[in-house]
Amino acid sequence: MLFKYKVVDQTGAPKEGSIDAATKDLAISSLQRRGFIVTSIVGEEEKTSILQMSFFEKIPLKDVVILSRQISTLFNAQVSALKAFTMLASSAENTLLARKLRQITDDLQAGTSISGALSKHPDTFSNFYVNMVRAGEESGKLNEVFSYLADYLNREYELTQKTKNALIYPAFVVLVFIAVMVLMFTMVIPKLSSIIQESGQAVPVYTQIVIGISNFFVNYGVFVVIFFVVLGLYLWRMSRTESGKTYLDSLKISTPVIGNLYRKLYLARISDNLDTMLSSGISIVRAIDISSDVVGNKVYGSILKKSGESVKEGSSLSDAFAKHEEMPPIMVQMVKVGEETGSLGSILKTLGQFYKREVDDAVDTLVGLIEPIMIVLLGLGVGVLLTSVLVPIYNIAGGIQ
């Protein structure tokens, strides 16, 4: 990597130049050995990274899945870690991922362990990922660990994507419904209501209600928009605090219909996490602690932390889970069977597969119900509005004849 430097030599004269080194520390050491006092040193990559990276730039989970699979393949082929990451950095299509892989390569060249190098990029490699790699380094089974990680992340990616995709269509239909209603109340109804009111005929109650709502949106619509903007900002700020995250996560799993889907999603994630880590030789206490950080829900994260404390004190995992109503009886009983038979890992794997199927079924059912319900509601809403306005107009036309 090329570094641009500014130094002062032994005579006090300032100098500028560039130096090629694996890391910034090595570049500084090399300059100091020449008798220079380093005043500034910046890597070419650091100078361009601000322009290359945007606030929203993030490495997709799919890329991490592919990366893990490639690392596992290279390790199986007896390729050294340094050479493997160098090859992957040069072939990565995602510029941000390529940059991170080059940084990891530099760290490996400087003597850092693979897990230590990965831990410097928590936005890409989670605590779960790093601890799995560390367990692989300790057991000498890095190729198997990266294969486990690729399989696990692939399952996680498929499960999460299916859940997100299931919610996109209903959200789109709801937004269309709201947009249609707003346009009707602010653009169409006011023009038609003026014709009705000028006719002097008796206006039905349901038409008066529609006209009243329309007048409200026309006169106070700006305040409604301001209210929702303020509400959105409040929820955003709330989601940045620990108490707010806990409340929103609790709301997420307690909402009718959607809550059941999210509960099964988190239970599948917990079972899969624990199975993957136990299979890699990580202790049960450490596995529970790591899972609490990566489960993705504050409520279940808190349950896992409390369960980990109970296990440390000598309690069984099934007894620790049984203290929390969010953990279903079937999971508690299955874990208990696994503890009694010494096959906790395989039981957790079975539970993960079971809840994944449950999530798939719940998603299919939800989509199957939401599509016709939304279409019917959209049609009814527009129909009621048009009927409320067109019936009085039809009566006016009949009276003129």
Task: Give average pLDDT, whole number.
Answer: 83
Cα distance spanning the termini:
88 Å
CATH H-tier superfamily of the largest domain: Type II secretion system (T2SS), domain F
Class derived from helix and strand content: mainly alpha
Oligomeric state, counting identical vs distinct chains: single chain
Would you identify the regions where 5 or more consecutive residues have pLDDT less than 50?
46-56
The CATH architecture name of the largest domain reads Up-down Bundle
- DSSP, total strands: 3
Largest sheet: 3 strands, antiparallel
Instruction: Provide the gyration radius in Å.
Output: 30 Å
Count of helical segments?
A: 16
Order of helices and strands: EEHEHHHHHHHHHHHHHHH
Total domains:
3
CATH class of the largest domain: Mainly Alpha
Order of adjacent strands in the largest pleated sheet: 2-1-3
Query: In CATH terms, what is the fold-level topology of the largest domain?
Result: Receptor-associated Protein
Label the overall shape.
extended
Description:
By secondary structure, the chain is mostly helical. The chain folds into three domains: 2-52, Ubiquitin-like (UB roll); 61-125, no CATH class; 152-401, Receptor-associated Protein (Up-down Bundle). It has helices spanning 24-33, 44-52, 61-76, 81-91, 95-109, 114-118, 127-139, 142-199, 205-238, 242-254, 258-279, 284-294, 298-312, 317-322, 329-341, 344-400, and strands at residues 2-8, 14-20, 37-43. It has a three-stranded antiparallel sheet. Helix 3 crosses helix 4, helix 8 (142-199) runs antiparallel to helix 11 and helix 8 (142-199) packs parallel to helix 16 (344-400). The protein is extended. The protein starts with a strand and ends with a helix. The relative contact order is 0.08.
